[in-house]
Design brief:
The structure is a single chain. The protein has 328 residues and is an alpha/beta fold. It has two domains: 193 residues, Bordetella uptake gene, domain 1 (D-Maltodextrin-Binding Protein, domain 2); 123 residues, Periplasmic binding protein-like II (D-Maltodextrin-Binding Protein, domain 2, 3-Layer(aba) Sandwich). Helix content is 35%, strand content 22%. The chain contains nine helices and twelve strands. Keywords: Signal.
């Protein structure tokens, strides 16, 4: 069986390189042509310093500088599920000199009444992802995903799961799980992944659905146990953990990080930035830092990444509307 790699190592979300860039769309003028780039590039991180998105930007930045021949300046603009940084980017000239990191919320915020939608941006490349997993307390009576499904069918609405919030990247697959398995669960939302996962480890809820890497510390510590990985293949580090699809529920979900520019950025500028991002993400040092953070480095160019975002937008919309309807 093919296996996906999820490197472990000590959690190292505090040391590494420097900055980033990216995006995809239109053609036209604005800073493009063979001369691009001739100025420094600003790369905004729409999250607080110290997280995996910030680390990836600061690790990739010097590699992008080598590829592009200009400085890449990283700047944090956190707040409101990333929308502070995303709104800032929308207002910038589409010339390739102002970029932003992005996560899965770019495809979902519009469904939660934010004025953020994929059409506002040109997508440059995906640089990492973190496959999701379903995990239960170590002494949980549920030994398999089918055990959990059977319990939920026997007691509709009584099985609980923790999430980082209604409509979040990890609440969405929980909605998909319920639809695919024909079950009814109760979401107990928390303010972020850390308290959400801690709640499952403490037995306050029946299971956690979150990034496999984020749950790993509790799994290693004997507090949680994986039931399923939400990926197309097993993870090399945990070969005994089957995928959800192997257990009859073809559910896949991963957190991801990429780069984008404002919509209308010229095609040639997008191509230049995308090529630089792909080259940088293929660097061994970059891949090592990302793997040590329990994430999977990837090199996805602008065109493919744009199609991926469009598919995520179509997939997440119905799930979020379903989650909202359950909140009354």
């Amino acid at each position: 069986m093919k296996q996906r790699t999820l490197m472990t190592s000590a959690a190292t979300l505090a040391a590494a390189g420097l900055l980033l860039s990216g995006c995809a769309s239109n053609s036209g003028g604005g800073g493009g042509g063979d001369e691009f780039p001739t100025e420094d590039i600003r790369l905004v991180v729409p999250w607080a310093a110290g997280g995996s998105g910030d680390l990836s930007a600061r690790t990739l930045a010097p590699l992008l500088e080598d590829e592009l021949g200009v400085s890449v300046i990283v700047e944090n603009r956190p707040g409101a599920n990333g929308s502070v940084g995303y709104n800032w980017l929308k207002e910038q000239e589409p010339d390739g000199y102002n970029l932003s990191m992005l996560g899965a919320e770019v495809a979902t915020l519009q469904f939660m009444d934010y004025d953020i939608k994929p059409a506002d941006y040109a997508f440059l490349g995906k640089i990492l992802e973190g496959p999701g997993a379903i995990a239960v307390k170590a002494d949980s009576p549920y030994e398999t995903l089918q055990d959990l499904i059977d319990a939920a069918k026997a007691a509709p609405g009584e099985i609980t799961y923790s999430s980082p919030g209604v409509g979040s990247v990890w609440d969405n697959p929980a909605q998909g799980f319920q639809e695919m398995a024909g079950i009814e669960l109760t979401n107990v939302p928390y303010d972020g992944s850390a308290p959400s996962i801690a709640a499952a480890a403490a037995g306050d809820v029946d299971f956690s659905i979150d990034a496999m890497g984020s749950q790993k510390a509790q799994v290693d510590g004997g507090e949680l146990r994986y039931l399923a990985v939400l990926a197309d293949e097993r993870v090399e580090e945990f070969p005994d953990v089957p995928t959800a699809a192997e257990q009859g529920v073809d559910l896949q979900n991963a957190s991801f990080t990429g780069l984008m520019a404002p919509a209308g950025t010229p095609d040639d500028v997008v191509q230049t930035l995308s090529d630089a991002i792909v080259a940088a993400t293929e660097d061994e040092d970059y891949q090592s830092v990302i793997e040590q953070s329990n994430l999977v480095p990837v090199s996805v160019p602008a065109g493919e990444f744009t199609e991926f975002i469009q598919a995520e937008e179509e997939r997440y919309g119905p799930w979020i509307e379903l989650a909202k309807s359950k909140q009354g």
